[in-house]
Design a protein that fits this description.
With 206 residues, the chain is of the alpha+beta class. The protein has one domain (4-200): Cyclic phosphodiesterase (Cyclic Phosphodiesterase, Chain: A), CATH 3.90.1140.10. The chain has helices at residues 12-20, 53-59, 92-107, 130-144, and strands at 4-10, 43-48, 67-76, 84-88, 119-123, 146-148, 159-166, 169-173, 175-185, 194-200. The strands form 2 sheets. Strands 1, 2, 3, 4, 5, 9 and 10 form a 7-stranded antiparallel beta sheet that branches. Strands 6-7-8 form a 3-stranded antiparallel beta sheet. The chain is globular. It starts with a strand and ends in a 6-residue tail after the last strand. InterPro entries: Cyclic-nucl_3Pdiesterase (IPR012386), Cyclic_Pdiesterase (IPR009097). One of its GO terms (biological process) is cyclic nucleotide metabolic process.
């Protein structure tokens, strides 16, 4: 990956909770040094190798509201950046934001992309570690972190993440509230990616 990406990021409390349960490099088996880097949970709204930061800023709607993100399934992918991920429900608000940004960047000639939109990656695992390692990571998550709900009558599925305990009891997240939009320079190893700009979404007033 090389270029700029626009991310929808959970509110700070939910961000910390999700980060707590993301898989770390396993101690019991050897894996590539580039597998299991520390990542920020997010939904990629658009990426571009051509766009400037100004073009990305222009593409963001002038008025933003918190975007609800609902988890659907834990999945194993065939790409480093989609090794293990949670697919996300295509809500009206999320799709409208994505479409607005993509259209604006297209008009700017930025050739944006957003593969497998919308999803939240859980782990990046190198191709050299293979599908077996990705499946193992997903299975380990299911065993200790992921609660998979029954399939609904409409065929939809739901998952929740066990994010530890609090004074109120077990904390499980089946969704998050997207309250920040980040512009990130994604060049080189994941640990070298740079957050260039953060926009806090205006909260809805009841």
């Amino acid at each position: 990956m090389s270029g700029l990406s626009l991310w929808l990021v959970p509110n700070p409390v939910q961000l910390q909770l999700i980060q707590k349960v993301l898989p770390k490099q396993p101690e019991t088996r050897p894996v590539s040094a580039v597998s299991y880097p520390e990542i920020t949970p997010h939904i990629t709204l658009a990426s571009s190798g051509k766009a400037t930061q100004d073009a990305i800023l222009r593409a963001i709607p002038s008025t933003l509201h918190p975007i609800p993100v609902e988890f659907q399934r834990l999945e194993v992918g065939d790409h480093y950046f989609r090794s293990v991920f949670i697919s996300v429900k295509k809500t009206t608000e999320l799709v409208a934001l994505h479409d607005h940004i993509m259209a604006a960047l297209e008009r700017d000639g930025a050739s944006p992309s957003a593969p497998a939109f919308p999803h939240m990656s859980i782990s990046y695992i190198a191709d050299e570690d293979g599908v077996a390692e990705r499946k193992k990571a997903a299975d380990e998550l299911r065993a200790i972190t992921v609660v998979e709900g029954p399939e609904n009558p409409d065929g939809a599925e739901t998952v929740a993440l066990r994010c530890g305990d609090s004074e109120e009891g077990h904390v499980c997240l089946a969704s998050f509230e997207g309250t920040e939009v980040w512009i990130v320079r994604c060049e080189g190893p994941v640990q070298h990616w740079q957050v260039l700009h953060k926009i806090t979404v205006t909260p809805d007033i009841a």
